[in-house]
Design a protein that fits this description.
With 543 residues, the protein is of the alpha/beta class. Among the domains are: 1-68 and 500-543, Urease, subunit C, domain 1; 78-198, Diaminopimelate Epimerase, Chain A, domain 1, CATH 3.10.310. The chain is 30% helix and 21% strand. The protein has a six-stranded mixed sheet, with no helix packed on it. A hairpin with a 2-residue loop joins strand 24 (530-535) and strand 25. The longest helix is centred in the middle third of the chain and has 17 residues, at 352-368. It is globular, with a radius of gyration of 24 Å. The two termini are 40 Å apart. 52% of the residues are buried.
């Protein structure tokens, strides 16, 4: 028989400024948690009256608490592995990048690959792309690959030789090998041209993957991130997640999104169809800690690498190049197959034409086979056309956007697509006004940082890190921005009945902040840091 003490909360937070996103109690001073769930919301006196002898009670001293941040497009495993490599996100020059390679070469056995990630040429003092000659001066004993933050690599001469890339190597479908004036490869590999070198890189061991997940998820807790969706995973990567969870080394809740079409040239359609059809499961399998999400697809590349699928050429170019990662003519067939099998589908679609064509293909499939509870979505959703907006609204397609790109890359838009299209970038206000669900995410490590408060700042102010305004008419309120980073992602992963708002019976995942997100000066939003993170009703991190 249970006693009253057995029914008392495990944790009570009181004397706080708690924003719940619960319609009945949107704001309160106290919250109680039991067995990982929210069991009471209200004033200090009524909630603290529930306490038993074993209840942990924490005085928030007026601090603001919000639902745990949910990053619905976050390559956590990749980030954990990146943390062991040369991190180039904040490098300001090619010379600085070369020096980091030189230092790593001192501790790397000759012949082993040196790998760096995250560079962005727009931050380089030299004002140009790096090349193989730049990297060659750092080491002649190691193959080197330095991966741009998205869809472009620079490889040294030794690395090119190992991959068999010469002046006579033809461009692969959907990729480009850049050449010098004398016809020799420069070391820059775009889109699909990256694969011959990347296929030579050593695959992390299972133990290394588990350690990477432990490190990355522990780091996320310091930012109040309590859930992520990791998209585009292969079977061994999903196994790493399962083993990390089993070993107690997964610190945040995770949804897994298996890779499907558009990722590797060596995967044949029969193999990909088998992956979707014969697992015996589909979207939604799992528990509150590790769950199977939708299938991840990709049709194009990115804007700053000039590999997105556009209606018009990039600024300075005269033709629209084909860097598509799958045959667009097959979109409807792929969507129909996954939809039929019960999978939710998310597709990387960055260019305006990619967005347009994917929304149209989803609309055609859903017109023929309606399903009210699908969670199909367009990932990145840079530039929406009138027709794609109509299709997204009518057929319930979600938009998974990355406000971090506004902050870190927004200034490059003018260079790449021109002012008119730049001011149509990531149109969140438009999406919301059309009734389209928006999920705000980071897409780390395809951006500089996973900091969700930088994302929130970008959505509210529409400013880049240089202070440039990008489509200011698409700004949203602080409430709308935070909702998109906490309460919409659970719809994407079929968890909206248990995760997101701090409602009775919902998961007790909470971030306590160092200042009031709702009232602090807008310029301070990006500087917010948590002082405490709670997952499953337990304090898992404190500043």
């Amino acid at each position: 028989m249970l006693s009253i003490r057995d029914l008392s909360p495990d944790l009570i937070l009181y004397n706080g400024n708690i924003h719940t996103f619960d319609k009945a109690v949107p704001q309160c001073s106290a919250i109680a948690c039991k067995d990982g769930r929210v069991v009471a919301l209200g004033d200090d006196a009524s909630v603290r009256a529930l306490a038993g002898q074993r209840t942990q009670q924490i005085d928030l001293a007026g601090k603001t608490a919000v639902p745990g941040l949910n990053d619905g497009h976050n390559h956590m495993l990749q980030l954990g592995i990146k943390m062991t490599r040369i991190q180039l996100d904040l490098v300001k020059s090619i010379a600085e990048m070369v020096e980091l390679v030189r230092e790593r070469a001192k501790t790397t056995p000759p012949g082993q690959w040196i790998i760096g990630e995250g560079w962005n040429e727009s931050t380089f003092a030299e004002g140009r792309l790096p090349n193989r000659h730049d990297i060659d001066v750092a080491t002649s004993e190691h193959p080197v690959i330095l991966q741009r933050f998205f869809n472009m690599d620079v490889v040294n001469s030794r690395g090119l030789a190992l991959a068999g890339i010469t002046r006579d190597t033809p461009d692969p479908q959907g990729g480009k090998i850049e050449h010098e004036a004398n016809g020799e490869p420069s070391g820059i590999l775009r889109a699909a041209a990256k694969q011959p070198v990347r296929s030579l890189l050593p695959q992390p061991t299972m133990d290394e993957c588990i350690a990477a997940l432990d490190a990355a998820s522990s780091e996320y807790l310091t930012y109040g991130i309590t859930s992520v969706l990791d998209p585009g995973l292969y079977p061994y990567e999903m196994q790493a997640y399962l083993l990390a969870h089993k070993a107690g080394r997964l610190r945040v809740r995770v949804n897994l999104m298996p890779s499907w079409h558009g990722f590797r040239e060596d995967e044949h359609e029969a193999e990909l169809d088998d992956r979707a059809a014969n697992l015996g499961v589909f979207s939604g399998l799992g528990d509150d800690w590790l769950r199977l999400g939708g299938m991840k697809m990709a049709v194009d590349g990115g804007t700053t690498s000039h590999t997105a699928w556009m209606f018009k050429p990039f600024v300075g170019e005269t033709v629209v190049r084909d860097y598509n990662r799958l045959d667009p003519a097959q979109l409807r067939r792929y969507f129909a197959r996954g939809h039929e099998l019960g999978w939710d589908i998310g597709i990387h679609a960055i260019g305006d034409r990619a967005h347009h064509e994917c929304a149209a293909a989803f609309a055609d499939v859903l017109e023929k086979a309606p399903k009210r509870d699908h969670r199909h979505n367009l990932i990145h959703s840079y530039f929406a056309t009138k027709e794609s907006l109509q299709n997204m609204t009518e057929y319930g397609l979600g938009a998974v956007i990355q406000p971090t790109f506004i902050y870190y890359e927004g200034d490059d838009l003018f260079r790449d697509v021109g002012e008119t299209l730049a001011h149509q970038y990531k149109p969140m206000r438009t999406y919301l006004d059309r009734g389209i669900r928006v999920i705000a995410t980071s897409d780390i490590p395809s951006t500089v940082h996973y900091n969700p408060y930088i994302s929130l700042y970008a959505l509210v102010t529409r400013k880049t890190h240089k202070g440039t305004l990008i489509a200011p008419h698409e700004a949203v309120s602080r409430e709308e921005a935070l909702y998109a980073y906490t309460c919409t992602a659970p719809w994407l992963t079929r968890e909206e009945d248990r995760k997101g708002p701090l409602s009775l019976g919902y998961l007790a995942d909470i971030a306590v902040l160092d200042r009031d997100y709702f009232t602090c000066p807008a310029e301070e939003i990006k500087d917010i840091m948590p002082v405490m993170t709670i997952v499953d009703g337990r304090v898992v991190w404190q500043a």
